[in-house]
Amino acid sequence: ISLNRNDRLRLINAPQPIIETVKQILSQYWSTRGGIQKERQYHASWEFKLSGTPWWACGDEAVMSRFVMCKILEGLQSQGWHVRAALDMCRRQNDKSVLAFYQSLPKIAPVVCLSFNDECKIRLINAPQEFVGLCRDIIQARWIKGIRDEKALNTPCMAYQFKLFGNPWSGYSIVDGLHIRSMLCFILQMLASRGWKLLISADIS
User: Fold this and answer.
1) Does the pLDDT at position 13 exceed 80?
2) Which of 47, 72, 102, 111 has its CA 20 to 30 A from that of 65?
């Protein structure tokens, strides 16, 4: 899967059933943003052009683009295609990650997105409700500056946002950068202890 320009999703070397699966997911879950504008054979790929700018987005559209990718990963792994890696293969600003897959046994499992936004926000997307309390406990224990605000986002999907004091994603403070990385290690450790694993780190928008 290659995310290109601001609004293109390309499937490379994908069998026809996978193309149909992705089309169904995009039609269902991107419908609130306008759905699929058009699709075509594009060189060695099948290309979907989506409404809006999902790969160059902020606010609700950025949340929904990540939600749709969660649903695509869920749908593909249910058919035996599992994501192996997210690759950065282009330096153009509006080309995002390329996701590589391998074929194995089908698996039914939810995919959750942990998203870092602006300079101080953490968003949980497509997550079980229990994640909110678990992540809140770790943030309060491990981020000394604390939580400025938290809320459920008004989107068609499950999305919850923590706004932290400070600017941990800005890169301005070496100390803050170290502390926030340590906190994220504890979040991943907590999730692993409950049977979750990190799939990829991808540039979506």
Assistant:
1) yes
2) 102
